[in-house]
Amino acid sequence: MADRKKPGCLAKLLALFLLGGLAVWGIKSCGDHVFAPETPEQAEKRKQEEATQAEKRQQEDAVKAEKWKQEEVKQPGRRELIQKLIGQGVFQKVEFRAQGATVWVGPTFYLLDFEAKQEFCSVVYAYVATNAKDDLVSVTLKDVQSGKTVGDYGQQWTGFGLKMK
Predict the structure, then answer these.
(1) Mapping DSSP to helix (H, G, I), strand (E, B) and coil, where does residue 11 land?
(2) Where are the domains of the chain?
(3) Is 141 exposed, middle or buried (0-12, 13-18, 19+ CB in 10 A)?
(4) How far apart (Å, rounded) are the C-alpha atoms in residues 160 and 163?
């Protein structure tokens, strides 16, 4: 009885051989591609592609920098309009974050038509995006009485524009 084998031992042995075979097959099938040395022609082509990509990134960065420079000029007017909207009760308050803002709204905001709401929220969005130098910011609208989120303005998750809940 001492020589009796445990059940499943053969299955484990077969699984081990199967895994070993797969490992050898995997190394053989992709080893030539992964470990092959780069030829001088391939190296030159790679260097040219890297240089092209670096030049493209520099051009994109220059365009972005110019865009943000032009937007920066508009910031005082945006800040003034936001303060007016708060003073008129359209916004109760605006809390700015690094990548967005929370706009607390009340009855005066709800009385506006959709286009006016969207226009006012776009000013807050542009102000925050310019400060962050990033188009992927969002503006969250919260009801001043309930504290619940009633809408969003941005393009990151909701799609560009105002979405009221």
Answers:
(1) helix
(2) 38-73, 75-164
(3) buried
(4) 9
The per-residue DSSP string of 106-160 comes to -HHHHHS-HHHHHHHHHHHHHHHHHHHT-S--EEEEEETTT--EEEEEESSSS-S
**How far apart (Å, rounded) are the C-alpha atoms in residues 112 and 127?**
21
**Considering only 24-28, 45-49, 55-59, 153-157, which range has the smallest mean pLDDT?**
24-28
Higher pLDDT, 84 or 154: 84
What SS3 class is residue 21?
Answer: helix
The residue among 90 and 36 whose pLDDT is bigger is: 90
Residues 139 and 125: beta-carbon distance below 8 Å: yes
Query: What angle separates helix 40-72 from helix 114-132, to the nearest 10 degrees?
Result: 120
Q: Which two tokens stand for residue 27?
A: 């190394």
Q: Please determine, for residue 99, whether its predicted confidence score (pLDDT) is greater than 80.
A: yes
pLDDT of amino acid 154: 83
pTM, two decimal places = 0.66
